[in-house]
């Protein structure tokens, strides 16, 4: 049904039409609390719990249908959430799911653009939750310079979750090379492929402290790196 709702074990709710059948199968078979990504969510909540401020600034870079942003605003009502999502269908889903969870519009800053290494526009391959910036073809979407956005914030980013289907290393390099590493205090990075996992680990280890890394965490499709700035 168009308005059927899928309820996760943590209280987050989304419209069932926003979730793929194979994802629901994974949630059920994992027997891990009916969560989207149990290991990543554990670290997300752990890092969130370490932030003393009542109004943490959290970036969700590549937020899909908004799962982690919804979880953030469920757990920390005073948080300032900034969500990046260039795919129009997913951006629409974020707005629908925000309303479904009773979250006021002013609690979420939705940037309908690809986080990128420069301002402009980029080709974007639309492929559900595997959508990504492409060299050619696909949609043309707006692109925002991630380092410039971080620099423009009135305060450092307390936590950034990065899931950009292969562009993770380029964005991390851009932030470092622009002198903005100290402006992001905590990272949760999803990686896509062994080479990117290794290179992201190395770069994060030079500028932050890696507290967890796993190229193939249980019950989720991507590698995972967690890093903090002491």
UniProtKB/TrEMBL annotation:
Segments passing through the bilayer: none
Keywords linked to the UniProt accession: Methyltransferase, Transferase
Domain of life: Bacteria
One BP term from GO: methylation
GO molecular function annotations of the record: methyltransferase activity
Methyltransferase FkbM domain sequence ranges: 60-189
UniProt xrefs under InterPro entries: FkbM_mtfrase, SAM-dependent_MTase, SAM-dependent_MTases_sf
Protein name, as recorded: FkbM family methyltransferase
Originating species: Rhodovulum visakhapatnamense
């Amino acid at each position: 049904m168009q308005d059927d709702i899928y309820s996760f074990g943590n209280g987050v709710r989304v419209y069932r039409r926003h979730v793929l059948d194979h994802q629901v199968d994974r949630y059920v078979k994992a027997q891990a609390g009916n969560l989207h990504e149990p290991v990543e969510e554990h670290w997300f909540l752990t890092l969130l719990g370490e932030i003393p401020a009542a109004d943490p600034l959290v970036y969700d870079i590549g937020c899909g249908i908004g799962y982690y942003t919804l979880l953030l605003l469920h757990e920390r009502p005073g948080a300032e959430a900034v969500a990046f999502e260039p795919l129009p269908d997913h951006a629409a889903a974020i707005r629908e799911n925000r309303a479904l969870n009773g979250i006021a519009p002013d609690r979420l800053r939705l940037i309908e653009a690809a986080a990128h290494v420069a301002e402009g526009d980029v080709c974007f391959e639309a492929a559900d939750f595997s959508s990504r910036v492409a060299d050619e073809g696909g949609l043309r979407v707006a692109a925002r310079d991630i380092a410039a956005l971080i620099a423009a914030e009135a305060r450092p980013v307390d936590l950034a979750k990065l899931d950009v289907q292969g562009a993770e290393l380029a964005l991390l390099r851009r932030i470092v090379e622009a002198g903005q590493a100290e402006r992001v205090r905590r990272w949760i990075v999803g990686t896509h492929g062994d080479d990117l996992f290794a290179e992201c680990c190395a770069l994060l280890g030079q500028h932050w402290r890696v507290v967890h890394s796993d190229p193939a965490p249980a019950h989720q499709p991507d590698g995972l790196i967690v890093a903090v700035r002491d």
